[in-house]
From TrEMBL:
Domain SGNH hydrolase-type esterase, chain residue ranges per copy: 50-219
Lineage of origin: Bacteria, Pseudomonadati, Pseudomonadota, Gammaproteobacteria, Vibrionales
One of the record's GO molecular function terms: hydrolase activity
Record key words, sorted: Hydrolase
Full protein name: SGNH/GDSL hydrolase family protein
Keyword Hydrolase assigned: yes
InterPro entries per UniProt: Ester_Hydrolysis_Enzymes, SGNH_hydro, SGNH_hydro_sf
Organism in which the protein naturally occurs: Photobacterium alginatilyticum
Length: 236
């Protein structure tokens, strides 16, 4: 109730600040480089990475420095990887569900998901977002027959340099509400893992736009995901 009242009273300010941020924030391109391939040796693992601009590597020059490249680099000495990246800047959970419906049905062992920031910026409640996330996970299970789904908590948007106050505070508090819902639900799903990087993220490690991860964040994120994968598959 209090949250809705604050939103109602502050909506004009948030709208003006949102337009300002879109106008002045540098528009960074998605990382260049291949979005599919094979690497490594050993047991075969089929990986699919899906999601938004962070999955697409915005903030890194090349995919080798982005999330996909760091995951592959960390795993290639342990597994033979067949991987693909399916991501687009600006994608919400709903957008990703729509695009995945057109993706060929095929089997992947692991699906890595990066979504949430764009959902937070929309007029969407945490309950509705969780419903969308549940639907996405169900779609991934049915479409790709995967055994492990790895999600990541929405980053602490209250620390994003690109966002002015009070918009920064509002989006940060909304992101936390989304994360609480997702944390409770994923804890009940045996095939889902939820990565939490928020305690390690530093604003000075972000990209020059103050909104996307920089190479250091991608490196730590990729290493964290790789450890989760190795813990599950090395002994499986």
């Amino acid at each position: 109730m209090i949250h809705n009242l604050i939103l109602l009273l502050m909506a004009p300010v948030f709208i003006v600040q949102g337009r300002y941020v879109r106008k002045v924030t540098p528009k960074l391109e998605e990382a260049s480089g291949p979005r599919s391939g094979s690497a490594g040796q050993g047991r075969v693992l089929r990986l699919l990475l899906v999601g938004d601009s962070a999955a697409a590597g915005v903030g890194a020059e090349d995919q080798s420095q982005a999330l996909s490249g760091n995951v592959i680099n960390q795993l290639s000495s342990h597994f033979k990887l067949e991987w693909q990246l399916h991501a687009k800047s600006g994608s919400t959970t709903r957008d990703t569900r729509s695009s995945l419906s057109d993706h060929p049905r095929q089997a992947y062992d692991i699906v890595i998901v990066s979504l949430g920031v764009n959902d937070v910026t929309k007029p969407l409640s945490s309950i509705r977002w969780l419903h969308q996330q549940k639907a996405l996970v169900t779609q991934i299970r049915n479409h790709f027959s995967c055994r492990q789904i790895i999600l990541t908590k929405i980053p602490p948007m209250e620390q994003f340099p690109a966002l002015p106050h009070p918009l920064r505070w509002y989006l940060g508090s909304k992101a936390k509400a989304f994360n609480r819902q997702l944390t409770r639900w994923t804890a009940t799903q045996s095939d889902c893992e939820l990565i939490d990087l928020n305690y390690r993220l530093k604003p000075e490690q972000m990209a020059i736009d103050g909104f996307h991860p920089g190479p250091e964040i991608y490196q730590f994120w990729g290493a964290t995901i790789a450890e989760v994968i190795k813990a599950r598959w090395s002994s499986d």
